[in-house]
């Protein structure tokens, strides 16, 4: 339709679509003019959002009026107010979709475009991708909808059956992909042993009797992992990855992942450091995997003790997640992927791991003795999973995702005092003076 990412669409693109190409509404596009009745307008939006999600996806542009003529329809750009009846339209639409569609529908934030010479009026460009959890039930109309030509129409019994079957197949394909990488069943002895994580070396745990190496695997899984969307072997791609591996807080001076050694396989590109202690993999299907050990896991001697204990530096872990998510936003915009991802943190061999690395104000007050340290006494392996749309990431969203992940890690270690890591939305930046990607 636009042949560019949603974030890059400009007024000229919409104007060309309407006035030059004289685009009509169709299978993948719907125009909406100014609402005369907000209740009716919201009902129509719920119908259109669900129909695109239940079909093959499409665009909904708010601020384009339909004019009926003797020969058919014409469309003109009139714009849209950002508020109606003191309601912020973007927030109001989000609330309507959350409240009226089951299961919940995830879609990117709209591109809001100012209109030249129409002060106070904008265009809202929504992109609704084909859903991986369709069909979505419309609670307003009490039925399912699909897009047929230029109409959102009630789904037939056969279409509903096919949508459920499509979701089941996608679910099976998704789980099969994770299973082949040993990232599905956390009770399996091989959980977390991916082709690259098997090769991670360690200094911290090399001298431990009967060493059990803890690992953290961070994965970003596209919704259709069997589809090929990039060519990672091209030098242009490799150059971009290396050039854009730095500049992300809270350690902007350092690469988010190793870039020393470049390796190829049938599925994509793998970058490792010389010590082979960490890696990042970019697959041609859009999948990304990062493996860490010594960067965040240590053999540590608590105050007043002589014996080392296995530990996870929680602030290092939080900071790394923040930096990696910042890179992920830039990366998926670069490859033009605007849809939902599954972000999974997979912890392997972490039974008995204690938490360290708290912010200084709390560490000095409470957590100095071995018996007081939060410890994981339950889970040998565990996962943390979130659904994300990386092109929607802002700084606040990135920090919130990191906080959600860290809270779950701390709960796995029998601790619910989240201020040990975060003070409001901040982590202790002084901690990162000694951080490095091992």
3D structure, described in words:
This protein has 438 residues and is of the alpha+beta class. It is built from eight helices and 23 strands. Helices cover 27% and strands 24% of the residues. Strand 9 and strand 10 form a beta hairpin. Helix 6 crosses helix 8. It starts with 10 loop residues before the first helix and ends in a 26-residue tail after the last helix.
Question: What's a concise summary of this model?
Answer:
This protein is of the alpha+beta class. Helix content is 27%, strand content 24%. Strand 15 and strand 16 (268-272) form a beta hairpin.
Features:
438 residues; alpha+beta; Methyltransferase, Cobalt-precorrin-4 Transmethylase, Domain 2; 7-stranded antiparallel β-sheet; 8 helices
Distance between the termini: 44 Å
Q: Give, in spatial order, the strands making up the sheet with the most strands.
A: 15-16-17-18-14-21-23
How many helical elements? 8
Proportion of β residues? 15-25%
What's the number of extended β-strand segments? 23
Mean of the pLDDT scores? Answer: 89
Q: What is the 3D form?
A: elongated
Major sheet attributes:
7 strands, antiparallel
Query: Which residues sit in consecutive blocks of at least 5 with pLDDT less than 50?
Result: 364-370
């Amino acid at each position: 339709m636009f042949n560019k990412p949603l974030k890059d669409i400009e007024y000229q693109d919409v104007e060309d679509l309407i006035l030059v190409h004289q685009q009509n509404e169709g299978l993948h596009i719907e125009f909406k003019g100014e609402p005369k009745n907000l209740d009716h307008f919201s009902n129509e939006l719920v119908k259109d959002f669900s129909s695109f999600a239940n079909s093959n996806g499409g665009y909904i542009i708010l601020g384009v009026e339909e004019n009926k003529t003797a020969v058919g329809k014409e469309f003109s750009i009139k714009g849209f107010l950002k508020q109606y009846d003191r309601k912020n339209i973007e927030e109001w639409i989000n609330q309507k979709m959350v409240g009226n569609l089951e299961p919940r529908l995830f879609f990117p934030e709209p591109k809001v475009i100012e209109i030249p010479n129409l002060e106070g009026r904008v265009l809202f460009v929504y992109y609704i991708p084909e859903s991986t959890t369709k069909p979505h039930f419309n609670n307003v109309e009490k039925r399912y909808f699909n897009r047929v030509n230029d109409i959102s129409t009630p789904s037939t019994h056969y279409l509903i059956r096919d949508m459920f079957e499509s979701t089941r197949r996608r679910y099976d394909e998704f789980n099969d992909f994770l299973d082949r990488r040993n990232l599905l069943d956390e009770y399996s002895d091989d959980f977390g042993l991916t082709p690259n994580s098997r090769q991670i070396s360690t200094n911290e745990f090399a001298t431990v009797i009967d060493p059990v190496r803890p690992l953290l695997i961070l994965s970003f899984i596209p919704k259709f992992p069997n589809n090929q969307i990039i060519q990672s072997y091209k030098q242009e791609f490799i150059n971009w990855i290396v050039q854009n591996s730095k500049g992300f807080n809270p350690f902007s001076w350092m690469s988010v992942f190793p870039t020393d050694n470049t390796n190829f396989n049938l599925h994509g590109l793998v970058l490792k450091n010389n010590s082979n202690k960490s890696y990042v993999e970019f697959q041609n299907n859009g999948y990304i995997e990062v493996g860490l050990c010594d960067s965040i896991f240590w053999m540590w001697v608590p105050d007043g003790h002589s014996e080392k204990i296995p530990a996870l530096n929680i602030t290092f872990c939080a900071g790394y997640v923040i930096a990696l998510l910042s890179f992920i936003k830039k990366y998926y915009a670069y490859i033009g992927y605007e849809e939902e991802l599954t972000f999974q943190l997979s912890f392997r061999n972490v039974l008995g791991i204690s938490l360290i690395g708290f912010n200084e104000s709390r560490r000095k007050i409470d957590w100095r003795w071995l018996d007081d340290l939060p410890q994981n006494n339950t889970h040998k392996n565990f996962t943390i999973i979130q659904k994300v749309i990386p092109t929607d990431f802002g700084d606040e969203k990135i920090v919130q995702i990191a906080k959600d992940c860290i809270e779950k890690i701390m709960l796995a270690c029998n601790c619910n005092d989240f201020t040990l890591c975060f003070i409001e939305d901040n982590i202790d930046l002084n901690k990162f003076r000694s951080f490095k990607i091992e």
